[in-house]
Amino acid sequence: MPLPNIFTKEVTDEMISRINKLKPDSQPQWGKMDVAQMLAHSNVGYEMVYDNIHPHPNAFMKLILKYLVKNKVVGEKPYSRSMKTAPQFLISNPKNFEAEKKRLIDYVNKTQMLGADYFDNKDSGSFGLLSKTEWNNLFYKHLDHHLKQFGV
């Protein structure tokens, strides 16, 4: 079953509404991150697309990721709670809840405003070219997973 389309205003508004239900003291149902760290972790995916502040894997690692990880990340099947996290997504230091929340909402809005066609056949940096459906799944599934982690 296709995932909700993060590129539509309705789905974006729903995700932002869920983000806005988070509080600085929201507790995870699983995992080690606090809510501010989870928001910062969720921002990393967008930073990789928009800000180019994280190193991209070399050609060999990109090939490995494309064949061993890509389908888990961009497919429709939900993430498991125990799925390994890539090193650049590990957040262990304290983060500012309000700042990370605002950045995430801004990224979600920017993604929706750019639209699906902007992302169609765009290079992901880690998995090669992705279709707009794969980008949608990547964005929606990751954020949905972590919002569920915190009960929203």
Please characterize this protein's 3D structure.
This protein has 152 residues and is an all-alpha fold. It has helices at 9-20, 35-50, 59-68, 70-74, 97-114, 116-119, 132-149, and strands at residues 122-123, 129-130. Strands 1-2 form a two-stranded antiparallel ribbon. α1 packs antiparallel against α5. The longest helix is centred in the last third of the chain and has 18 residues, at 97-114. The two termini are 22 Å apart. The model has no long low-confidence stretch (mean pLDDT 94).
Let me know the largest β-sheet. Answer: 2 strands, antiparallel
Q: Please provide the count of β strands.
A: 2
Unreliable segments (pLDDT under 50, ≥5 consecutive)? none
Count of helices?
A: 7
- Coarse morphology: globular
The computed structural class is: mainly alpha
Compute the gyration radius: what is it? 15 Å
Task: Report helical residue fraction.
Answer: 40-55%
In N-to-C order, the SSE pattern is HHHHHHEEH
Question: What spatial order of strands do you see in the largest sheet?
Answer: 1-2
Provide mean pLDDT, rounded.
Answer: 94
The N- and C-terminal alpha carbons lie at a distance of 22 Å
Q: In percent terms, what proportion of residues is strand?
A: under 5%
Task: Summarize this structure as a short list of keywords or feature phrases.
single chain; mainly alpha; two-stranded antiparallel ribbon; 55% helix; 152 residues
